[in-house]
């Protein structure tokens, strides 16, 4: 006997399939790309450098977000959330840890590249591992706070995935959201902006352009900017006034970030890409550790 479930308000059966497909395609593609990045780092000894360790951790954070999206896609095809209220809380927590860690690691990569190309300071393993450890601990801490009363996790409008509940817009939500926006969007974005501007100036002096300095920040703002604006809007107005389909398009867009991160930071980094090629083909390649 097949159990039927009432569709969420504002969504048709086609919408459930469409959003589920978008979650699933983005999640599976990102999972595949980031899995290659992770396994390559572990398998190819020459890749294991302090700088590449940041990209490795970024891939770990992003593949976790890919899993989060795949679960949302699966639930969308079922037309309901199958894991209960506790599963919703776990899903929201896991997704938040992934997002916060990812945002900090792209900032860490920008900071490292600034020193690599502008100050010529070498990154040591002790510094790289310490920074990575701090990023993960802080991400878990901030993601845990909604489970402890500051902020709250609840269903997205599609009711097949869970995230920070912006529907209330009360003081509890607003203070938590403003704090997160400052520490996990504004500061990383400013770090990327200043770092890549300095790198671009250095490239103009040397006439050696070793990486694209414009796209990292653009991708971050394009993927996460609209969703953060929705969350900020919820601090001053009732977010339910925004059409539910639009409110679902924004998190789907945000969860494409891991795909772009893999292409920009792993496959788009000369040294990391060479290691991936070596892992996939078995052919030795000179890993240009200083070329990112």
Q: Which short descriptors sum up this protein?
A:
disordered C terminus; 9 helices; two-stranded antiparallel ribbon; 292 residues; globular; mainly alpha
Structure description:
The structure is a single chain. This protein is an all-alpha fold. Helix content is 70%, strand content 2%. It contains 9 helices and 2 strands, in the order H-H-H-H-E-E-H-H-H-H-H. It has helices at 13-43, 50-78, 84-119, 125-144, 171-206, 215-233, 244-254, 257-266, 270-281; strands at residues 153-155, 162-164. Strands 1-2 form a two-stranded antiparallel ribbon. A hairpin with a 6-residue loop joins strand 1 and strand 2 (162-164).
Question: Summary?
Answer:
With 292 residues, the protein is mainly alpha-helical.
